[in-house]
């Protein structure tokens, strides 16, 4: 995907979208074809580090023991020590799951984390994930973990053959948004069994705008109807 094609679409979105009194999100949408989501192998799920972040810092919560508590309080948005796990009730754990983007756990506490918070985190796909280094030893440097997670997003198919993710906000520069789009798309192509042959179309939109189909040769089409599933 050429950066100029993306930049052209961003410009058209900005030109057509009414001015808002709040900061909107740029959503990147890729509709897929010829994939069977009932087959686990064909489902898409990966993490990508956006070169310029998504316009706001990810919120990270850490589950830690005494050895990592001081570090966790300094670099994470919330640190929950082991001795406080049983103080969180069902309502509070649901609120916790809805308030943070990533959860980090000390490896020795994973069983306790699952017992205390699993019912809220697991259905949302938020349990500490080793793929992105969210399960750490007692000797971990949590600042490195926090820095890595600050610009990371999860990209996944859910119940439909498409992916949707945030790639920036309306106050970011067009170049930064375009480079974020390229980073997601490039990794997505590698994750798909048939590469670009599995891509039906590629879209970009603001929170309150209709989506634009990103086309080659600096062409873009304004989509007024609802996105076809």
Number of helices: 6
Q: What is the oligomeric state here?
A: single chain
Secondary-structure element sequence?
Answer: HEEEHEHEHEHEEHEEE
Beta-strand level of the residues, as a percent range?
15-25%
Radius of gyration using CA atoms only:
19 Å
Which architecture of the largest domain would the CATH scheme give at its second level?
2-Layer Sandwich
The main pleated sheet reads as: 5 strands, antiparallel
Question: What is the helix content?
Answer: 25-40%
Task: Give the tally of β-strands.
Answer: 11
Net shape: globular
- Strands in their spatial order, largest beta sheet: 8-1-9-10-11
Fourth CATH level, the homologous superfamily of the largest domain:
Ribosomal protein L1/L10, rRNA-binding domain
Q: Flag low-confidence runs.
A: 217-229
Protein architecture, described:
The chain has 229 residues and is α/β, with parallel strands linked by helices. It has two domains: 3-55 and 152-222, 2-Layer Sandwich (Ribulose 1,5 Bisphosphate Carboxylase/Oxygenase), CATH 3.30.190; 60-149, Rossmann fold, CATH 3.40.50.790. The strands form three sheets. The chain has a five-stranded antiparallel sheet, covered by helices on one side. Strands 4-3-5-6 form a four-stranded parallel sheet. It has a two-stranded antiparallel ribbon with strand order 2-7. The chain contains six helices and eleven strands. It is 31% helix and 24% strand. The model is unreliable at 217-229 (pLDDT under 50). Helix 4 (110-121) links the parallel strand 5 and strand 6. The protein starts with a helix and ends in a 7-residue tail after the last strand. It is globular.
């Amino acid at each position: 995907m050429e950066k100029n094609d993306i930049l052209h679409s961003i410009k058209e979105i900005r030109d057509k979208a009414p001015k808002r009194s709040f900061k909107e999100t740029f959503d990147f949408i890729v509709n897929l074809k010829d994939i069977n989501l009932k087959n686990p192998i064909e489902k898409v799920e990966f993490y990508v580090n956006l070169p310029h972040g998504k316009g706001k810092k990810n919120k990270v919560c850490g589950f830690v023991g005494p050895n990592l508590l001081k570090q966790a309080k300094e670099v994470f948005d919330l640190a929950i020590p082991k001795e406080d796990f049983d103080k969180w009730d069902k309502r509070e754990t649901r609120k916790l799951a809805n308030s943070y983007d990533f959860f980090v756990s000390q490896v020795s506490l994973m069983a306790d984390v699952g017992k205390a918070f699993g019912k809220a985190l697991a259905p949302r796909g938020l349990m500490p994930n080793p793929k992105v280094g969210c399960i750490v030893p007692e000797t971990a440097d949590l600042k490195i973990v926090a820095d890595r997670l600050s610009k990371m997003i999860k990209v996944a198919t859910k119940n439909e053959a498409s992916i949707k993710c945030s790639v920036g906000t309306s106050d970011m520069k067009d170049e930064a948004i375009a480079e974020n789009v390229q980073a997601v798309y490039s990794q997505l192509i590698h994750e798909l069994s048939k590469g670009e042959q599995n891509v039906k179309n590629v879209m970009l939109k603001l929170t309150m705008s209709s989506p634009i189909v990103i086309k080659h040769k600096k062409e873009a089409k304004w989509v007024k109807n609802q996105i076809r599933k």
